[in-house]
Structures are given as structure tokens and as C-alpha cells.
Amino acid sequence: MAAKAALKRPTRKLHVRKGDTVEVIRGDDAGKRGKVLQVFPAKGRIVVEGVNIQKRHTRPTRTNPQGGVIEKPGPIDSSKVMLVCPGCDKPSRYRRQRSADGDLVRVCVRCGKMID
Fold first, then answer.
1. Are residues 50 and 96 in the same domain?
2. Assigned domain for 112 exists
């Protein structure tokens, strides 16, 4: 049983990065836009601000003497979001192209502008 626990899940390359603006396309929060706060490639999940808000009830502590309900965004599957192009301001796919200096950059399929 211990041998199974030692196996690692292979990391996947996600189509979004931390700091990208994305739009949710499936689920309860469909249509909402937000910035990617965290990325978990091993699980294929991301945290988007203002999406999948979870409430946690906390008791009063020394650091938080009031206690109460804390709301924070929870992770969602990365397949449920699309990257929003800053040029055309619509959710779209992207392709990777080489720039003039030889670096790979993300380019919007819709309008052809660079995303990075």
C-alpha cells in the first residue's frame, strides 16, 4: 500500500498561467471573468478571483479576535475556463509562434495579436 502512495501524478501543461484573465465557460459561475491567482498543474486545477467562492467559519483567535465567516475562492478545473484575449476582449484559443527575437509567444487565434 505504501508503494502506491509514493507514485506521483505526472504534471500537465496548462493553457493558462498565473496572472492571465480568464472567462468561465461551464458550471455555476459560467460567464464570470477573473484573474488567475494560483495554478496547480499536478491536479489540473486553477484558482480564479471571484469564482467558486467558499465560506469557512472560523472561531475567534488571537490573530482574528472577531472570528466569523471567511470567504475565499476555491480551485476549479482548468478545462472550464478560456483565456481572454486583451486585443479583442473575447475568450479565445491561442497558438504559439516565434517572435522576431526567437522567443515563443502566445498569439490569439481570433485577432492575431500577441497575448504575452
1. no
2. yes
